[in-house]
C-alpha cells in the first residue's frame, strides 16, 4: 500500500522583492527588463542624423557637378552653323526637281528607324516632291547608294540611314537635316521645288510598292520547257515600284 502523504517541515522564506528566487531563473530578470526609452531615442536620432548628413552631401555634390554633354549639345547647335560645307560634293543625276531620301522602314535598329521617321516628317511638312527609297523593300537601292558614294570618293565611308539629297545635291543625314530645319536654311534649299498634294496614294497606300502582276509577288515564273525561273520584272521581294506615285 502507498504511504500516507506527510506535510513538509521545510519553511520557504517569502521573498516579495523578487518573484524568481531560484538560481536557474537568475538571468530571466535581466532578459525581461525593458530597455530604457531614452536608448531608443538616442539610436533613432543617430540614424536620422546620418541620413540627413548623407542627403545633404549628395545634394551638394549634384549641384557642384558639371552638366552632362548631351544637355549642352542643343545650345551648342543653335549657335553654330550647320556643317553643310563640310559635306562631300555628291550629286544624283536627274534629281534636280525633287528630294531623294534613302531610308529604311525596318525597326531592327531603333535609333536608325527613329532618325528616318524624323527626317520624313520634317521633309513632308514642306509638301514638295519626295522620292522615298526604302532599302528594306528593294536591295537595289543599297547598291545604288553605295555606287553614289563610291563615285564621290567616299568608298570607305560607313553609310548610315537616312541619306538625303535635295535638288540632286547631297545634304547629309538626320543630324544635318535637323540643324538645317532649326536654323531655317532647309526652307531655302527646298524653295523652287514643285509642290504636291499631301494625300496618300490610292494604289499603293503610301508604301511606294505593289505586287508584281506577272508573278503575283512570288518572284518565280514557271515555263513548261525550262521549269521555274526568277521573275525579271520585280525585285527579290516580288514587288515593283508603284506606277501611280513613283517619281
From TrEMBL:
State the superkingdom: Eukaryota
Per the UniProt record, one Pfam family is Glutaredoxin
The biased composition feature labelled Polar residues covers 77-89
Q: Which residues form the Glutaredoxin domain?
A: 100-170
Q: Where is this region: Disordered?
A: 68-89
Q: What is this protein called?
A: Glutaredoxin domain-containing protein
Amino acid at each position: 500500500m502507498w504511504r500516507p502523504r506527510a506535510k513538509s517541515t521545510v519553511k520557504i522564506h517569502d521573498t516579495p522583492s523578487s518573484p524568481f528566487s531560484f538560481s536557474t531563473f537568475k538571468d530571466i530578470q535581466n532578459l525581461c527588463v525593458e530597455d530604457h526609452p531614452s536608448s531608443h531615442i538616442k539610436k533613432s536620432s543617430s540614424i536620422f542624423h546620418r541620413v540627413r548628413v548623407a542627403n545633404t552631401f549628395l545634394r551638394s555634390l549634384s549641384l557642384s557637378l558639371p552638366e552632362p554633354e548631351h544637355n549642352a549639345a542643343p545650345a551648342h547647335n543653335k549657335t553654330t552653323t550647320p556643317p553643310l560645307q563640310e559635306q562631300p560634293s555628291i550629286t544624283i543625276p536627274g534629281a534636280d526637281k525633287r528630294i531623294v531620301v534613302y531610308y529604311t522602314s525596318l525597326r531592327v535598329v531603333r535609333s536608325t528607324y527613329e532618325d528616318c521617321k524624323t527626317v520624313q516628317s520634317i521633309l513632308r511638312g514642306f509638301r514638295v516632291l519626295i522620292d522615298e527609297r526604302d532599302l528594306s523593300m528593294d536591295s537595289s537601292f543599297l547598291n545604288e547608294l553605295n555606287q553614289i558614294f563610291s563615285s564621290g570618293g567616299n568608298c570607305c565611308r560607313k553609310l548610315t540611314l537616312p541619306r538625303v539629297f535635295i535638288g540632286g545635291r547631297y545634304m547629309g543625314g538626320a543630324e544635318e537635316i535637323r540643324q538645317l530645319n532649326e536654323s531655317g536654311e532647309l526652307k531655302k534649299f527646298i524653295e523652287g521645288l514643285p509642290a504636291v498634294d499631301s494625300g496618300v496614294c490610292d494604289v499603293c497606300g503610301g508604301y511606294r510598292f505593289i505586287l508584281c502582276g506577272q508573278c503575283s509577288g512570288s518572284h518565280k515564273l514557271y515555263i513548261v520547257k525550262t521549269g521555274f525561273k526568277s521573275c525579271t520584272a520585280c525585285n527579290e521581294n516580288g514587288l515593283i515600284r508603284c506606277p501611280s506615285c513613283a517619281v
